[in-house]
Amino acid sequence: MNGNRMKLNALAAAFAGLLAACGGGPPVGEGSVPHQEGGPTPPPAPGSANPTGLDFRATALGAPAAPDGRNWRTAEYLGHWGLDAISAHEAYARGHFGQGVTIAIADDGFDPTHPDLAGRIRAPRHVVHRDANVFEPGYGGQPGEGHGTYVALVAAGASGNAGGPFGIDIEGGRVIPTKNAHGVAPQASVMPIQLSGGGHPAEAIRHAAANGAQVVNLSIGLHWGYYGEFAGRDGVWLTTPLPIFRPLIGSELGRRHTGTPRILDDFGEIAGILGGNDMTVVWSAGNDGWNAVNNHVHMCGKNFIGEDGCPLGQGPVSAVDFMENFSWLYDRDDPSRKLRFRDMWGECGSGSCADYNSGGSWYAGPQFEPGLLGKWLVVGALGRHGEIAGFSNGCGEARNWCVL
User: Fold this and answer.
1) Contact 279, 213 (CB under 8 A)
2) How far apart are CA 389 and CA 401, in angstroms?
3) How far apart are the C-alpha atoms of 107 and 283, rounded to whole Å?
4) How would you classify the pairing of strands 236-239 and 227-230?
5) Cβ pair 108, 139 in contact under 8 A
6) Which of 33, 52, 284, 295 would disulfide-bridge 219, Cβ 3.0–4.6 Å?
7) Consecutive H or E run containing 236
8) 46-63 pLDDT per residue, tens
9) What is the mean pLDDT of residues 254-277?
10) Strand (E) positions, 112-173?
């Protein structure tokens, strides 16, 4: 992938594992919609407004099996509070552990010898080197930090495993110690897909589909520090890294400047792949803290681009203030070329646009390609008490295919 890589929350993998453990579920929308004679309402045309109120065909899953009466909330289980937060024990009591399901983890370097994953590795792939060696350095030539292994453990780490030692081997012989992880779907197989060095998400999805994965998890993403003008303030202002906002994807400007070339074409191709496979793609919402609870952007003021420090001041502004008044200087050699963020959303403005709360980028795929609906899931992170985690992006315009 082009641009800077960021580590995104592994809760996307957790939900991917839950889907695997429970055998799927109804498509994500504004709520459960009963079946209509004649099929569902056709999806909106590409480029139309955010499709709130979408109708989906109901999926008959049959009556769930009766619980087996065993206590699956063991000490090991309770040591990973996310399992209890999603009531994974209720799936276990009905015999669902992810057996027969393969979860593809598209990420950075991967340790296939971890004792909680060993023996359940299928079709590993390094998409840049075109081989099966996924134990490689991370992005930018730096040693990997085991992120792909962590995500796989959250999704499918074994339960009741007394073996060990538990650790993630990374490049250079260093070992990051872990305890027995107990993933959401502890009997699922894992398909590690290494994206380091410029691998593209579409390549990972192709490989996963060709090798029979039911879930593809991408806890990856791009972020961007924007230089621009702020109405009523002197100088230029730099943001902390933020998501690559969705409206940039659909423009030639976005194709040139956001590190997402071909993305609209990719959406169409991926919709075709997913349409012929029983497979769901799960994206992490991102860790930029772009949510309505935080509702602020940290800014650094400079007299000129590249000046050291923040001589014109620094501090937070509200997200709406930023969207309404910040203009991105996307061509540093020509300050007259700029784009106000508000204008990218058309009629949104004055704090009334929920889409301002979007993480954008790949997460917004169904906005551009309705064929992705029902196959595309964005997952943000919650804290222990059910509130959105401060670091997590919100759903925004992806709210019809998003969970927290």
Assistant:
1) yes
2) 19
3) 11
4) antiparallel
5) yes
6) 284
7) strand 236-239
8) 444 444 455 556 777 788
9) 71
10) 125-126, 167-169
Contact between 386 and 6 (Cβ < 8 Å): no
Give the H/E segment covering residue 275.
helix 263-275
Cβ neighbours of residue 304 under 8 Å, at least 6 residues apart? Answer: 235, 236
* DSSP conformational letter for 10: T
Give the separation between CA 349 and CA 135, rounded to whole angstroms: 47
Can you tell me the distance from the alpha carbon of 87 to that of 84, in angstroms, rounded to the nearest whole number? Answer: 5
If you average pLDDT over residues 234-250, what whole number do you get? 76
The two tokens of residue 144 are 């990997």
CA separation for the pair 296, 253 (Å, rounded): 26
Query: H/E element holding 103?
Result: strand 102-107
Pairing of strands 280-284, 296-302: unpaired
Ramachandran assignment for 7, one of left (phi > 0), alpha (psi -120 to 50 degrees), beta (any other): beta
Residue type, position 262, single letter: R
Q: What is the pLDDT of residues 322-367, one digit of tens each?
A: 888 999 887 777 878 888 877 766 655 455 566 666 666 688 788 7
Give the type of residue at 194: Q
Model confidence at 24, in pLDDT bands (50, 70, 90)?
A: very low
Please say whether the beta carbons of 282 and 9 come within 8 A.
no
Which run of H or E residues covers position 190?
strand 189-194
Helix 11-22 crosses helix 147-156 at what angle (to 10 degrees)? 30
Query: 4-5 and 222-224: which strand pairing?
Result: antiparallel
| Cβ atoms 104, 134 nearer than 8 A | no
Show the tokens assigned to 393: 């992006």
pTM: 0.79
